[in-house]
Design goal:
2 copies of one chain form a homodimer.
Chain A lengths: L14 H15 L2 H4 L5 E5 L2 E10 L5 E2 L2 E2 H14 L3 E13 L4 H18 L2 E10 L7 E11 L14 E5 L5 H10 L16 H10 L5 E4 L4 H13 L2 E5 L7 H10 L12 E6 L3 H9 L8 E6 L6 E5 L5 E4 L12
Parallel strand pairs in A: 5-6, 10-13
Antiparallel strand pairs in A: 1-2, 2-7, 3-4, 5-7, 8-11, 8-12, 9-11, 10-12, 13-14
């Protein structure tokens, strides 16, 4: 059944997002780059491979513990390039501002965006600003697109995943989603919790140096670890398992999830990657991960099975297991 | 005096837009690409020159005579690449949708965007969709970023403009702005008027073939012909003159301007370029322009003087003249 209007869920990174892409966008935009459905397009320019990606940021609130919409817009796009094996080179930054937006807040955001780019070693090469009348947008939206140079020889893509692969995650999951939730809701919890928003390009470079056989990486943003892996499992055609006890999860995030009745594996991350590599390489990749500040809490959390339909199964600590589907509904609108 | 809140005028392409860029954005994002302040960044990748640009589209209404926000988002970004001497290769497309947006309208827009890209020979290589709750955005915004390959050896930039250059425009001005205005206001005029939204990459290629000495090009979007030329004059440090009688202007646009009390030279175009070349090359460039469907109404409209401060002077048919400043105020919010 096709919906006749856009629902919040179409932007969730879950089932309806997928449907929108495959049923509404792809049929009219079909081409070899887009059809891969990875976070970045990959193409040759003058004999070398480059990647190219775009994301709009509509996060609410624009300032949150651990970051703001400016740093997030830099980290998010850098991460999409990094997980394609790209060294980020240039970003664009396009602002849509609501009339009446405070100039001081704009300056803070631009400064934060500039610092995040400089810290990650990328240039903001080009930009744009549009202003819409009061009420036509909520405060500020930012789009960043980015270009990266691919230096890793193998294709990092869902199609490269093989049976027997280990699945690693680079640290505690759900921090970004929980921090945004906590900054919106009137929770009585202490909120030492911060977004994990961070640029993953340095971590990725050290992981690719550690193993020349990494098969695929993804940053686990909208849809969370569970949503990303369920999507990858479905597309790969392999059954994948996760061990609940091995998934790094902070007590504070667990607490917020229990109070709100949501699952941490579906909460967005903005500085965590999921990685697939041959099981025999997993120890050296994990070691490289743990020796990087942004991967020190990394873990092997699952594996790709030899057989079975394309689906994701979560095994819990008590011997039970259940299938994890692409999330439906929208847990946290404007999460990024 | 610095404003403490964003005004509509900050998005006009005029004086306050310039101020926002130079006072709020550049200080925090400073780098050699951005500091050129051209519509596209230009850089080397693997020994070849490429250009990179971004624009968000917030036009209202999203369907208008002569196009829609989808085709506009493709044409606008292609044109920014083309006037940098770039052959457009890849575009990104990022949608921000308001909850409740009609799916049929989205399909029409995506189809139009896809067709515009295919017609211009570019790939939509990567994309993104965000959905915000009702009231947090007005319908739909689109961002496109683009990458082009520069094949013209000389730098096409304000810094290349020389005294004595002829100034050409590729056809009737103000059509886009007037068409959007007419589609909003309750005008009793007949509205055969259509936006001039079109991809200029083909025209640009034939112009660059006609003269190896074209110095600079710009597409005359926000701020119109007058705004773009006033900005270029100020930045170049040269006095420039325009002859009012030589500026191609449709009677319908003149009529709308008279009714609304606005100047056609400040109305946005989405398929018109301004070009600077040595006066002796102007005849062959104009001939090439007129032999292309998108330049058939082109004309030489002015020149760059030998001396004088960086300013733009408009000479009228009766021997009078006046200085044209960067426009202030915002004629038509959400024009593109």
């Amino acid at each position: 059944m096709k919906h006749d209007r856009i629902l919040l869920e179409h932007g969730s990174g879950g089932l309806l997002s997928n449907e929108l892409v495959t049923e509404t966008f792809l049929p009219h935009l079909k081409n070899p780059c887009l059809d891969r459905l990875e976070d970045s397009a990959v193409f040759n320019l003058n004999g070398k491979r480059y990647c190219f990606t775009t994301d709009s940021y509509v996060v609410n609130p624009i300032f949150f513990p651990g970051g703001d919409i400016g740093s997030l817009a830099v980290h998010g796009t850098i991460n999409d390039l990094a997980v394609a094996g790209g060294r980020p080179l240039f970003l664009s930054a396009a602002f849509i501002l609501e009339e009446g937006f405070p100039m001081n807040d704009l300056e803070r955001i631009v400064k934060s965006l500039g610092r995040a780019a400089a810290d990650a070693g990328v240039f903001i090469a080009t930009g744009d600003t549009k202003v819409v009348p009061r009420g036509a947008a909520d405060g500020m939206f930012i789009n960043t697109a980015g270009i990266g140079e691919i230096r890793y020889p193998a294709p990092l893509a869902v199609g490269s995943i093989r049976p027997g692969d280990a699945i690693l995650v680079s640290g505690f999951i759900g921090d970004h989603g929980a921090a945004i939730l906590a900054s919106r809701e009137e929770l009585t919890l202490s909120t030492a919790l911060k977004s994990d928003s961070a640029p993953l390009n340095g971590l990725v470079e050290s992981l690719l140096e550690a193993s020349p056989r990494v098969h695929a990486m993804r940053d686990a943003t909208r849809g969370g670890l569970g949503g990303i892996l369920a999507e990858i499992a479905a597309r790969s055609g392999f059954e994948m398992t996760m061990e609940e006890k091995d998934i790094p999860l902070r007590d504070e995030v667990r607490g917020i999830c229990e109070i709100m009745g949501i699952e941490a594996i579906f909460l967005a991350n903005e500085g965590k990657l999921v990685l697939f590599c041959p099981e025999e390489d997993a120890p050296q990749v994990l070691k490289a991960m743990k020796s990087h500040p942004l991967g020190k809490d990394g873990a092997v959390i699952g594996r790709v099975l030899e057989h079975g339909p394309g689906r994701l199964v979560l095994n819990n600590a008590f011997g039970g297991s259940r299938e994890i589907d692409l999330p439906t509904g929208e847990l946290v609108p404007r999460i990024c």
